[in-house]
Amino acid sequence: MSFKGKAYYLVGLFCFTFLFVCGQDQKLADSLINLYNSGSYLDDEVVILKKIANNETHPERKLEYSELLIKKASLDSLFDFLHSGYLQKGNALKASGYYDEAIDSYFKSLNYADRIGNKSGIGAVNIAIADTYSAIEDFENAYKYYNIGIQLLRQTDDSVSLAVALTNAGDEYVKNKKYDLAFQYFEEAEIIFKNTENKNGIAYILGIKGDIYAEQGNYDLAKANIDEAITILEELNDYYGISSFLLSLSDISLNQNDWPTALSHAQRSLKLAESYGLKEQIRDANFKLSVLFEQSENYKESKRYYENYIKYRDSLTNIESVEKMANLRTDHEVSQKQIELDLLNQKNKNQKITVVATVIALLLIGILAFVLYRRNHFIKKTNIIINEEKSRSQNLLLNILPKETAMELIHSGKVLAKKFESITVLFTDFKWFTHYAENLSPEALVKSVDYYFSKFDEIMEKYNLEKIKTIGDSYMCAGGLHYHQEDHALKMVQAAFEIVEFVNESKKL
């Protein structure tokens, strides 16, 4: 299960996302990998692969063993292990910044969890999906899936997954500065983590609280919480969380005018992020270092880190329709930085143009701010259009396909074939329809057919049956497509009698 949190920068004015796999243990993963490679394990192969994937912290290795688990589990259709494999694969992809692929993997995991009725697993996947939507700032879908996941997990005994869900949902309140509501979620989660002795959860709660204290200006309490969190995460080799919280410490040090310590924390964060391929942390550490070197008037280094920040920022942007525009804006931003650097160098060489250089620099900053504003406005407008078109296409699918089929197509982009032991199919046809159709106008004909088929739809819904399609005057429906529906044949017969009764009554009008 993914754990997501945000540290809010007081200087950089942006946030980053971190996550971890609840209960992961790198030392255990390393020992399990050695055992697996030796071939001397007693458990089934899929069992030990599942343990490795669950505990591995390095995204690339987690992806490797998750895919191996999926491959082995597919041979015997082991749905429980396929659910776990795709969940951990999604976590690995999300940690590396591949959000589209992560979502695809999560929906596959969700499908297998649903097949075996694993309510805890379904809840966990919904939280992971919510975390991913939050990372790409699709907050409407993030809240939607958080609520679904929490409601499901409250109905299970999986208290640790519930605690993770509460923490991540509370983090959304932090983003909107609703700290009282956030702390309510965090306190409930913290109780669960302590009762279950879950070190990962305790560490992340400490770190998130530290970020909030820093935002409120209580730096001593913030550092105490974050230092304790990092100490625990170092024992667990959780470099994702360590890299994230180091940037929080850098921000706190900068606000306390301790520039050398701020630089040290940011450099260590970048080094860890690059070592483990953590794209979000690489992006955020580069931005932090750009800010730090700019404040020390080392504009050459500031420009270099800013260019790296832009590169990783754009690599995490998944809106294809604005990709070219984003590249153009990136070039423009970098060129503005170069102009600013040249002007400042000239200022140092010739004090006579100090006033002119200052005015030009301020003008360029204003232009850069305007460009960034226009860019954000454009992206927001584009997101609105994309969401409206997405909603329109989803509604269209729901109108022309069975609900279950439409939802599966919306979530995963395809529909898996399903096997049913028995179903009941009903076809209806209007006798002498062609003869009557010849004497009716097209408008009257459509209105007449719609009158009957609308009533047929109500009857199908009444008996929990599924309309398949209509062709001309033919109406096709089926029963038994819903799991645990054993009386579909009886319901279909009852529906058929009701259809006949409705048609006979209509003829009397």
What would your notes on this structure say?
Helices cover 74% and strands 5% of the residues. The protein is built from 21 helices and five strands. A three-stranded antiparallel β-sheet has the order 3-5-4. A two-stranded antiparallel sheet has the order 1-2. Strand 4 and strand 5 (474-479) form a beta hairpin. The model is unreliable at 5-21 and 318-336 (pLDDT under 50).
Order of helices and strands: EEHHHHHHHHHHHHHHHHHHEHHEEH
Strand order of the largest sheet: 3-5-4
The average pLDDT is 81
Count of DSSP strands: 5
Q: Helical content, roughly? A: over 70%
Query: What radius of gyration results from the CA coordinates?
Result: 29 Å
Q: What is the percentage of strand-forming residues?
A: under 5%
**Ends distance:** 60 Å
Main pleated sheet: 3 strands, antiparallel
Number of helices: 21
Task: Give the helix/strand class.
Answer: mainly alpha
Shape, principal axes of CA atoms: globular
